């Protein structure tokens, strides 16, 4: 379960990106593995965030060069965070 703090100053999408980045760093989601889908992440957050928020979090990780989307397959880890 992913718990995000709605009262925090940090936006929800940044909090979610941080959680996913930490999972990648720890090896819970290793390089080459697919990240949970948007629907799976929605369930993991207890339905408390929108798909747009999830998409924004994934976009942060794409911009950082940690993940890459593959059409029709999902989003895959391609690098470890520094």
UniProtKB/TrEMBL annotation:
GO terms for biological process: negative regulation of DNA-templated transcription. Residues 10-80 form the HTH gntR-type domain. Keywords: DNA-binding, Transcription, Transcription regulation. It comes from the Bacteria. Gene3D superfamilies: Winged helix-like DNA-binding domain superfamily/Winged helix DNA-binding domain (1.10.10.10). SMART domains: HTH_GNTR. One of its GO terms (molecular function) is DNA-binding transcription factor activity. The keyword Metal-binding does not apply. Signal peptide: none annotated. InterPro entries: Bact_HTH_transcr_reg, Tscrpt_reg_HTH_GntR, WH-like_DNA-bd_sf, WH_DNA-bd_sf. This is HTH gntR-type domain-containing protein.
């Amino acid at each position: 379960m992913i718990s995000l703090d709605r009262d925090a100053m940090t936006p929800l999408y940044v909090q979610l990106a941080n959680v996913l980045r930490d999972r990648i760093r720890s090896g819970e989601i290793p390089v080459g593995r697919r990240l949970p889908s948007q629907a799976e992440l929605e369930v993991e957050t207890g339905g408390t965030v929108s798909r747009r928020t999830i998409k924004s979090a994934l976009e942060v990780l794409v911009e950082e060069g940690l993940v890459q989307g593959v059409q029709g397959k999902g989003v895959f880890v391609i690098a470890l965070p520094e």
